[in-house]
Backbone:
């Protein structure tokens, strides 16, 4: 990522607080103009005013609830039509942690819309322009919970696993065209998402909790380094590479003409 005085425009979703607001701050200081998207107009306006004053960058706000089709369509249209957009940060998301059987299914449906449908549609909207201009970046905020198979994490972890998979595939599809896609997998980060998640972050050991500014700064350092997957807490990237290598080793045996002999199914000739 260039640190020049004009890097184009970054559109950041979920920008009014937490990770999104911190990305907005850091990107403005890196020379990006901003389009900030969130539901809370008052918070957006306050952040935009501060960033204009402190950085001198152009900062627009777009009030939208990305779970609502009409609002999502407004943001999609912005991404399609504004040729100055060089960076999309898909940060907006929500978490519901708890057993599926006792969950509010409508809440989970909204979570899937926000965590999966919205970033998919927004990426689809921005990609043709980025590819045609041969320049651009998509950052998808996933989660380390995408890698954790544990009770209470079925839907949230599943949505973040989807976002990780999408990011890795997209980077393969558009990397040669000059577009980079990064997935960021934060661990427990001190943001407002916990307040309605069903889990209390204050019950976690302090050694597990990262402050949001450190998380975003690490994610941007990973982006600068060209990482496709950035795990800010992971000390040794070789651990992640071993995971990728193990998955790749499975591939030759994932699809064969006949079932594996261990199942005792006679092959039909």
Residues:
């Amino acid at each position: 990522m260039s640190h020049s005085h004009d890097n184009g425009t970054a559109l950041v979703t979920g920008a009014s607080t937490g990770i999104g607001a911190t990305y907005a701050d850091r990107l403005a200081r890196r020379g990006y103009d901003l389009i900030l998207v969130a539901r809370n107009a008052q918070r957006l306006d306050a952040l935009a005013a501060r960033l204009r004053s402190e950085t001198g960058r152009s900062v627009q706000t777009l009030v939208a609830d990305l779970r609502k089709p009409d609002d999502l369509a407004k943001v999609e249209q912005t991404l399609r039509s504004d040729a100055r957009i060089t960076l999309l940060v898909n940060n907006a998301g929500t978490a519901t942690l708890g057993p599926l059987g006792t969950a509010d299914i409508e809440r989970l449906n909204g979570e899937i819309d926000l965590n999966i449908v919205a970033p998919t549609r927004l990426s689809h909207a921005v990609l043709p322009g980025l590819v045609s201009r041969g320049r651009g970046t998509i950052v998808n905020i996933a989660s380390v919970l995408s890698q954790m198979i544990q009770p209470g994490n079925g839907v949230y972890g599943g949505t973040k696993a989807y976002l990780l998979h999408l990011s890795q595939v997209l980077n393969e599809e558009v990397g040669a065209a000059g577009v980079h896609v990064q997935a960021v997998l934060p661990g427990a980060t001190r943001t407002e998402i916990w307040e309605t998640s069903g889990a209390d972050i204050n019950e976690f050991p302090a050694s597990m909790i990262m402050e949001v500014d450190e998380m975003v700064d690490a994610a941007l350092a990973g982006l600068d380094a060209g990482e496709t997957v950035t795990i800010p807490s992971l000390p040794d990237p070789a651990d992640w590479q071993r995971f990728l290598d193990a998955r790749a080793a499975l591939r030759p045996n994932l699809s064969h003409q006949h079932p594996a002999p261990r199942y005792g199914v006679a092959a039909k000739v």
Summary: The domain at 9-235 is CATH 3.40.50.720 (Rossmann fold).
